[in-house]
Write a structure and sequence with these properties.
The chain is mostly helical and 455 residues long. The protein is built from 19 helices and no strands. Helix 7 (134-163) runs antiparallel to helix 8, helix 13 (288-319) runs antiparallel to helix 18 and helix 13 runs parallel beside helix 19.
Length: 455
């Protein structure tokens, strides 16, 4: 009853999303055009960027495991990154009304850069490829934690900013494409609109090769094919991951600070400023008890959307990448098997996020229920490890891994699009940050649960 009733209430609130911008929005022909889809591309790149540092650390785990054989590197990285990111987000939620998202995001990118630059420098000047220099391990774990702080600052801010604008920008951040609004009954209009959507989907797929998960998978395949899997090859691979991440971070800093100059972004920022000023005139400054009351109202509005996202990532992280990369084996594909599975997951995760441009499930009750339905993946994957012989072969495991990625991408994108539209415009950023908080809690729980996966 709890999930169903609350999800139904959340679905009823979906009707409010149409009025999110309505009180302040003039006729649609006065909204500045997103020329060349530049704002969309920038938000897509921003969404790609804040995931790359984590992917760089976890993809270079082969090299770190070689350097520090007595440490459970991948799991320690996961727990440190997720828990510190969670604490960072809690502070941001508490003080979002007193801080500027522009400052938070720029500080976050600088912290990302410091950590990403420091790791290869520590390796070059201190560790020097030697096994067992655990001072380097503790420094590396510290830099992982620094990236966790940066992730909270950047991800919360970027998703919060996207939540203040139409759905297409949240789709861009979550790696989806956009055409928002309900379709008219006119068949000609529907056909034209869907052609536009498909054109944007092509744009997303082309740009999507740079999405962090797919990009890192491509790099992993290339480095494994080109470099020998010895000390020198692993070191070169790890350095390449960090170099690519540094380049993307620099690009994101430029893009983010350019975005505010674009007419379409300025337009929606002005709408938010007007909404904030109107609320101040009506209620006064949001401080103390008034802010806490407002914050709880926001949490109440998005809690079931957030719960759906949380359970999505508890399920995903408890299975992927740990069990997929460590506990399934192939005599035919050998050590290429986990790489193929990771690539398959990342590609289908991107496809799932892109599918929202063709069909966006606007029924919140159904989307939340489907998110909880993903719990079925746990017994199914258990069957792939301990069930009949056929279920443990390459085809069923690969198909299930791709389905895990597809459903993860689609339902994450749907819920993150719908959630900020349930509150007033001036609170959409905070709603977006709260949803990210649920996401990070799911990641943290999932990364811990992965330690106790029954093998």
């Amino acid at each position: 009853m709890g999930v169903t009733t609350a999800a139904a209430a959340a679905a009823d609130r979906d009707s409010e999303s149409a009025t999110l911008l309505a009180p302040l929005q003039p006729s649609p022909d006065k909204i500045p055009k997103d020329t060349f889809h530049l704002a969309y591309i920038i938000y897509f790149t921003l969404g790609t960027g804040y995931l790359l540092p984590w992917n760089a650390f976890i993809t270079a785990v082969d090299y770190f495991t070689y350097l520090y054989p007595d440490a459970s590197v991948d799991r320690v990285f996961g727990v440190v990154y997720m828990l510190i990111g969670l604490i960072s987000l809690l502070f941001i939620v508490a003080f979002a009304h007193k801080s500027s998202s522009v400052v938070r995001i720029n500080v976050g990118y600088v912290l990302f850069l410091v950590a990403l630059l420091a790791v290869p420098l520590v390796d070059a000047w201190y560790v020097k490829g030697r096994v067992g220099v655990y001072g380097g391990y503790y420094l590396t774990v510290g830099f992982v934690g620094l990236c966790g702080v940066a992730d909270g600052l950047v991800q919360g801010g970027v998703v919060g900013n996207a939540g203040e604008m139409p759905e297409r920008y949240m789709q861009a951040v979550v790696a989806g494409t956009a055409a928002s609004g309900k379709e008219k009954g006119d068949l000609k209009w529907v056909l034209i609109n869907n052609v536009k959507r498909l054109n944007l989907l092509v744009l997303n797929v082309v740009a999507g090769t740079a999405a962090s998960g797919v990009l890192v998978s491509v790099l992993r395949v290339l480095t494994k094919a080109l470099y020998p899997q010895d000390t020198r090859g692993l070191r070169k691979s790890a350095n390449l991951y960090f170099i690519v991440s540094i380049i993307v971070m620099l690009l994101n800093i430029v893009f983010y600070n350019v975005a505010h100059r674009l007419p379409v972004i300025k337009y929606y920022n002005d709408l938010k400023s007007q909404a904030v000023n109107e609320e101040k005139e009506q209620k006064g400054d949001l401080t103390g008890k008034l802010w806490r009351s407002t914050l709880w109202d926001i949490v109440g509005s998005v809690k079931w959307y957030g719960s759906g996202i949380l359970i999505i990532y508890v399920v995903t992280l408890s299975i992927f990448p740990g069990s997929v990369t460590e506990d399934v084996h192939s005599d035919t594909l050998k050590d290429w098997y986990p790489i193929i599975l990771i690539a398959g997951y990342n590609i289908f995760d991107l496809i799932g996020k892109s599918l929202t441009s063709i069909y966006l499930m606007e029924n919140a009750k159904l989307a939340i229920s489907a998110s909880f339905g993903r719990l079925l993946f746990l017994p199914i994957f258990y069957g792939c490890l301990h069930g009949p012989g056929f279920f443990r072969t390459e085809i069923p495991v690969t198909v299930l891994t791709c389905l895990l990625g597809l459903t993860n991408g689609y339902f994450t994108c749907v819920l993150m699009i719908l959630a900020p539209k349930t509150v007033h415009l001036q609170h959409a950023e905070t709603a977006g940050i709260v949803v990210v908080l649920y996401l990070v809690v799911g990641l943290a729980i999932g990364s811990v649960v992965s330690w106790f996966w029954v093998l």
